[in-house]
Design goal:
- There is one protein chain.
- By secondary structure, this protein is an alpha+beta fold.
- The chain has 3 domains: 7-71, RNA-binding S4 domain (Structural Genomics Hypothetical 15.5 Kd Protein In mrcA-pckA Intergenic Region, Chain A); 75-169, Pseudouridine synthase; 171-314, 2-Layer Sandwich (Pseudouridine synthase).
- The protein contains 7 helices and 15 strands.
- The strands form 3 sheets. Strands 5, 6, 7, 8, 9, 12, 13, 14 and 15 form a 9-stranded mixed β-sheet that branches. A 4-stranded antiparallel β-sheet has the order 1-4-2-3. It has a two-stranded antiparallel ribbon with strand order 10-11.
- Helix 1 (23-31) crosses helix 2 (35-43).
- The longest helix has 12 residues, at 158-169.
- It starts with 6 loop residues before the first strand and ends with a helix.
- The relative contact order is 0.11.
- One of its GO terms (biological process) is enzyme-directed rRNA pseudouridine synthesis.
- It catalyses: a uridine in RNA = a pseudouridine in RNA.
- Belongs to the pseudouridine synthase RluA family.
C-alpha cells in the first residue's frame, strides 16, 4: 500500500547474469526484495519491461529495461500525526486528557483502518501521552467504537495509565451512555446479563453467545416516544459493541444501527446514518488527587436532530 503517496521510481537494465530468469526472481535479486514482494509489485502493475506490462513468470533477457515503481510500505498500525476536525478537549491536566470524540474516528490505529484516530490527533496537537501499552495504543485505557461518539479519557502520565487501567478493569469507572432504541423496552428499567462473543458467521459483528465473555448492561427509559425510547445506559462491563448487541438481543436495536437489525426505513425517516448511541458521561477517581471527577458530552448535531424529529412525531 502506498503510504502518504510516496513512490520510489527506478529504471534499470537487466544484467547478463540474470538473463533467462523469471521476472519475479530477477526483480528480487536486483532490488533485494522478497520474491513475494516482487510478485506483488508485478501483479499491481508497478513493473514495466521494455515499455510493456508483464507477468511474474515471464523470462527476462539481458539488457531489457525495467521501469519499477516501489510504493513505500507503511506500517498499518503506525501512528500518523493528523489533526482531526471535531475532536474537542473537555479537560486537560498533567495526568490525563478527556476528549469528546466525533463519529468516524477510531481511538487508535489498527490493520485495515485508514481513517483518522484519536491518538494521531493528540500527537499532532502536541499532547504527550503515556507510553504504556502497545505502541499504537499508548495511553489508551478505554475505547469507543468508530461509529460511537462521546466522552473518553486518555492517560498522559505512566502513573495515571496504571491507575485508570486498573479502575476500568475493576469496573469502578462510571460510564453513562444515552441510546435511542426502536420501540419500548419492557420493563422500562432493567439489567441485561448475557455473555457476548464474536458472531459465528460475521467476524465484524458480535452476538450473545453461550461461551462469550460476561457482559452486564443496566438501562432505564428516560423518554418514551411513538417510534422509539431514549434510554440511559450504565455499563458494568465494557465489551466491544456491548450496548448495541444487548439492545439488539432485546429486539430493541439502537435506531440507525443497521449492523444489528435496526429498520433502515426508520433510520432514513429520521435522517440517521449511524447508530443513535452517545457516551454522555464519565466519572472516576482522579489518579493524582483521588477526588471523584465527572465529565460530560452533549449530543452531536445528527443525533440531536433525529431526537427532535422523534419528539415531534405523532
Amino acid at each position: 500500500m502506498a503510504g502518504n503517496g510516496a513512490v520510489d521510481r527506478r529504471s534499470v537494465n537487466v544484467p547478463d547474469g540474470l538473463a533467462g530468469e523469471r521476472l519475479d526472481a530477477a526483480l528480487a535479486r536486483m532490488f533485494g526484495f522478497s520474491r513475494s514482494r516482487a510478485a506483488e509489485l508485478i501483479s499491481a502493475g508497478h513493473v514495466i519491461v521494455d515499455g510493456h506490462a508483464t507477468a511474474k513468470s515471464d523470462r527476462v533477457h539481458a539488457g531489457a529495461q525495467l521501469d519499477v515503481e516501489i510504493p513505500s510500505l507503511v506500517d498499518p498500525i503506525a501512528i500518523v500525526p493528523e489533526m482531526v476536525e471535531g475532536i474537542k478537549i473537555v479537560h486537560d491536566d498533567d495526568a490525563l486528557v478527556v476528549i469528546d470524540k466525533p463519529v468516524g474516528v477510531a481511538v487508535h490505529p489498527s490493520p485495515g483502518w485508514t481513517g483518522p484516530t484519536v491518538v494521531g490527533h493528540l500527537v499532532a496537537a502536541g499532547f504527550r501521552i503515556a507510553t504504556s501499552g502497545a505502541s499504537e495504543r499508548q495511553g489508551i485505557v478505554q475505547r469507543l467504537d468508530v461509529g460511537t461518539s462521546g466522552v473518553m479519557v486518555i492517560a498522559k502520565s505512566e502513573h495515571a495509565y496504571s491507575v485508570l487501567k486498573n479502575a476500568f478493569r475493576h469496573r469502578t469507572v462510571d460510564k453513562t451512555y444515552h441510546a435511542l432504541v426502536q420501540g419500548h423496552p419492557d420493563p422500562l428499567k432493567g439489567t441485561i446479563d448475557a455473555p457476548i462473543g464474536r458472531h459465528p458467521r460475521h467476524d465484524y459483528k458480535f452476538a450473545v453467545m453461550a461461551d462469550g465473555k460476561h457482559s452486564v448492561t443496566h438501562y432505564e427509559v428516560i423518554e418514551a416516544h411513538r417510534f422509539a425510547s431514549l434510554l440511559e445506559v450504565h455499563l458494568e462491563t465494557g465489551r466491544t459493541h456491548q450496548i448495541r448487541v444487548h439492545m439488539s438481543a432485546l429486539k430493541h436495536p439502537c435506531l440507525g444501527d443497521l449492523t444489528y437489525g435496526a429498520d433502515p426505513v426508520l433510520a432514513a425517516r429520521f435522517g440517521l446514518e449511524r447508530q443513535w448511541l452517545h457516551a454522555v458521561g464519565l466519572g472516576f477517581e482522579h489518579p493524582e488527587s483521588g477526588e471523584y471527577v465527572e465529565y460530560h458530552s452533549g449530543y452531536p448535531d445528527d443525533l440531536q436532530r433525529a431526537l427532535d424529529v422523534i419528539r415531534d412525531a405523532h
